[in-house]
Write a structure and sequence with these properties.
Order of helices and strands: EHEHEHEHEHEHEHEHH
Strand content: 15-25%
Structural class: alpha/beta
Distance between the termini: 29 Å
CATH class: Alpha Beta
Helix content: 25-40%
Largest sheet: 8 strands, parallel, barrel
GO molecular function: thiamine-phosphate diphosphorylase activity
Strand order of the largest sheet: 1-2-3-4-5-6-7-8
CATH superfamily: Aldolase class I
Domain Thiamine phosphate synthase/TenI: 8-192
Pfam family, one: TMP-TENI
Organism: Planococcus dechangensis
CATH architecture: Alpha-Beta Barrel
Bound molecules: ligand 3NM
Mean pLDDT: 96
Low-confidence stretches: none
Pathway: Cofactor biosynthesis; thiamine diphosphate biosynthesis; thiamine phosphate from 4-amino-2-methyl-5-diphosphomethylpyrimidine and 4-methyl-5-(2-phosphoethyl)-thiazole: step 1/1
Number of strands: 8
Length: 215
């Protein structure tokens, strides 16, 4: 699932601003994102059946582009819509309990900040690790201070075969350090969701992948 460099887009309806969220997702899929995570948080976030319907619509779109569909935090929703994966943070449900609940047919992403947390996540059967915030972010109210890439390097050195996805304030012009630290992918909200030209922005992210630089 993470064999090729990942451009992992995260979004919830509040991130779409004045754009139509499904049209935004479709543009991102058309532009070439490799993974999508529904992260429905913050003011105006959908809940209940409206959230289920939106999640089902996102999943359908992702399937049409053969892009894995992840749900943030909400194990019930992930199971209801039969997501391809779930992503949890350190403050969310215990990762062992989540793995037990979802079995091994669903991928499990866990946010970690150190080798110690990585050990723990991997002992629960995490499929990949999210690490951030690499840079300052305005998309997560309770984000920790920007951490740079040093912990990514350490976890990569300890677990060279585990996919690590960097997150937090990543833009086409600062993504290089994340790739160089050994990340298998970059996860992005605002730089894609808020772009005037979503497809062009994804092309710029693709251009940041080592060996795929253009111009
Ligand atoms: N998690 P943007 S930072 C959802 O550090 C999320 O774990 C983070 O959004 C972490 O690309 C973050 O707009 C927000 O900075 C990423």
């Amino acid at each position: 699932m993470f064999d090729n460099p990942a451009i992992y887009f995260l979004m919830g309806t509040p991130n779409a601003g004045t754009k139509d969220p499904l049209a935004l997702l479709e543009q991102a899929l058309e532009g070439g994102i490799t993974h999508f995570q529904l992260r429905e948080k913050g003011e105006g976030a959908l809940s209940g059946s409206a959230l289920e319907d939106f999640a089902a619509a996102c999943k359908k779109l992702c399937k049409a582009y053969d892009v894995p569909f992840f749900v943030n935090d909400d194990v019930d929703l992930a199971c209801t819509v039969e997501a391809d994966g779930i992503h949890i943070g350190q403050e969310d449900m215990d990762c062992g309990a989540v793995r037990k609940r979802i079995g091994y047919s669903m991928a499990l992403g866990v946010s970690v900040h150190s080798v110690k947390e990585a050990n723990q996540a991997l002992s629960c059967g995490a499929t990949y690790l999210g690490m951030g915030p690499v840079y300052g972010t305005r998309s997560k109210a309770d984000a920790k201070p920007a951490a740079g890439v040093s912990e990514i390097r350490k976890v990569k050195a300890q677990y060279p075969h585990v996919p690590i996805i960097g997150i937090g304030g990543i833009e086409p012009h600062n993504a290089d350090a994340v790739w160089q630290a050994g990340a298998s992918g970059i996860a992005v909200i605002s730089s894609i969701a808020e772009a005037d030209d979503v497809m062009g922005q994804i092309q710029r992210f693709q251009g940041s992948i080592p060996g795929r630089r253009v111009g």
